[in-house]
Specification:
The chain is α+β, with helices and mostly antiparallel strands and 550 residues long. It has 17 helices and 20 strands. The N terminus is likely disordered.
């Protein structure tokens, strides 16, 4: 270290030539020395570096030969022979990945720093035990290392200064592990609250995908569901609870459960959202959620929907053109003070509809409308089964495992059936006119239709009986206009009667002496399921289903 000490001496001489070393109190350096305060010139570089708790090493020349290591360095890695190359005697520098960095510092003459690098070290007690023939106990240490160029007298050198940050690194790792556990808990909760298996309606093909955000993104509250309502109708819902973590997932679970309960009431979409709006405010006023609830009726060929601040449904027609549903029909759930309304969009045979959350289309670098437009272009070319469409849209929108937000996508298709497949799906309807004579006409119509559909005699007779009871109930308690509708799918027979009165029938126990009141009970007994709902514009529909034999 003579050259380094010479630098300090030369610096001291320069200060003396410039007129001494005046202190803050105006006294010169001689006075400070007399007061017992040491002069910097009195300290050697070895004195300074040797007492530092940080690890210090000095190497020189292009092959980085060892000139000096301080006591802290020896305690961590052992003695290092001066004059040996770092590549031969300092494996820790290789493990820290410092050799290329030292070359760069030597060439550029500029210092470089690397943060929190791990290397295996040993305590001084372990080193002494090893020197005396005992075992060496190693541990992992983390260091932030700065390599600084120095002039070593004729050849360049590098001063290596390593600060022990093991405690900070371990604390950071514990924090990361805790965050990973919390994230895994939130992901597990989120997945457990989503449908484990989607219901598959007779008339639609449905698939969904949920992908949590990457490790740097906390799990959100994206969710979806498919609910069969009876009479061939299907409810589809997708939503997004604002916020992250377990709390958002828990709120999502409560909303999804509530949607399933409200759906069983077979209410119009806007009434379902009206109920959800009040519930969301009660669950947590600070949590805002968006949601779209849609109902598909195979007899109408449309999606009737209500949207609470959610992104628009996209529908791809069979020819590849994409239509976008109208703007949201109301603000997000939990805001209150808004009367929601329903809208509709055509879903003809051969069409594909996509419901999605903002994680699929929202990017920090662009407006969300641009993201929706990109999704429209991707959907225009996305063909195949619903799950294939899901996967293609995820890829087309650049969603990866490290995406910064969670994503939910729900795809439904209304297949265009031809040939033998089309023979499994039929519709027939009859307007019920003329008062009480409508009942025998309805029975004759049902018998003829069910015979033409080649149903077994037993199922045909049950269908005619159910038709008779539903029509009789409508004639007695309903008002015109009245209509009978029969529908066959590949799995069930559906019988539905509509009329202009909006009072829903209830199943009740009829006394032996009662002459009426048994119709709905008979239907409930012979059918697989039955139900009723109010229809848009007033009136009601009462229906029942029979499962077809396999």
């Amino acid at each position: 270290m003579p050259a380094a000490r010479g630098e300090f001496e030369e610096h001291g001489e320069r200060r003396e030539r410039q007129g001494g070393t005046a202190g803050r109190d105006g006294k010169d350096g001689g006075d400070r020395g007399q007061a017992g305060i040491p002069e910097l010139e009195e300290l050697t570089v070895r004195d300074v570096l040797g007492g530092l708790p940080a690890l210090v090493a000095l190497v020189y020349g292009p092959d980085h030969r060892v000139a000096y290591v301080n006591d802290a360095y020896e305690d961590a890695f052992g003695l290092r022979e001066p004059g040996t190359t770092a590549a031969d005697s300092c494996p820790e520098l290789i493990e820290l990945g410092l050799m290329p960095l030292m070359d760069q510092v030597l060439r550029s003459g500029k210092p470089r720093t690397v943060k929190s690098r791990k290397v295996q070290t040993a305590t001084s007690g372990a080193l002494h035990a090893s020197a005396n023939g005992g075992p060496t106990v190693a541990r992992d240490g983390s260091y932030t290392v700065t390599c600084t160029p120095v002039d070593t007298g004729g050849s360049g050198g590098v001063l290596i200064f390593a600060a022990d940050v093991t405690d900070h690194a371990e604390a950071a790792e514990r924090l990361r592990a805790s965050e990973r556990r919390l994230r895994e808990t939130a992901v597990a909760l989120q997945r457990s609250l989503l449908p484990q298996e989607l219901e598959q309606p007779d008339d639609l093909r449905v698939a969904a995908t949920y992908q949590p955000g990457g490790t740097d993104a906390a799990v959100g509250g994206d969710w979806y569901d498919v609910i069969t309502l009876g009479a061939g109708r299907t409810a589809l819902v997708i939503g997004d609870v604002m916020g992250r973590g377990v709390r958002a997932a828990a709120v999502m679970g409560q909303l999804r459960t509530a949607v399933r309960a409200y759906a069983r009431l077979d209410l119009p979409p806007h009434e379902v959202l009206q109920l959800l709006d009040g519930l969301a405010a009660e669950i947590d006023p600070s949590q805002i959620a968006t949601c779209v609830y849609a109902v598909h009726d195979p007899n109408e060929g449309r999606l009737v929907y209500a949207s609470a601040g959610h992104l628009p449904i996209l529908v791809r027609a069979e020819d590849g053109t994409v239509a976008r549903a109208a703007d949201p029909t109301g603000p997000p759930l939990g805001t209150g003070g808004w009367i929601h309304t329903s809208g509709s969009i055509e879903l003809a045979p051969g069409s594909t509809a996509v419901l999605y959350t903002d994680g699929l289309v929202e990017r920090r670098s662009e407006d969300i409308d641009e993201g929706v437009a990109s999704l429209e272009r991707a959907l225009a070319g996305a063909k195949g089964a619903p799950q294939v469409v899901c996967d293609r849209l995820i890829r087309a929108m650049g969603v990866t495992a490290e995406h910064d937000d969670d994503v939910a996508v729900l795809v439904l298709q209304h297949p265009a059936r031809t040939g033998q497949a089309a023979e499994l799906f039929h519709n027939a309807a009859l307007d019920l006119l003329g008062g009480i004579e409508a009942a025998p006409r309805a029975r004759a119509f049902a018998s003829g239709v069910l015979s033409s559909w080649r149903f077994p005699v037993e199922l045909r007779d049950l269908g005619v009986l159910a038709t008779s009871e539903l029509v009789a109930n409508s004639l007695q308690h309903g008002t015109p206009p009245m209509r009978l509708r029969l529908r066959r799918t590949d799995r069930r027979l559906i019988i539905e009667v509509t009329d202009g009165d909006d009072h829903l029938p209830l199943r009740r126990h009829a006394e032996p002496a009662d002459e009426a009141g048994r119709g709905i009970s008979i239907v409930a007994t012979i059918a697989s399921s039955w139900g009723s709902r109010r229809t848009p514009g007033g009136g009601k529909a009462v229906w029942c289903e029979f499962a077809l034999p396999h």
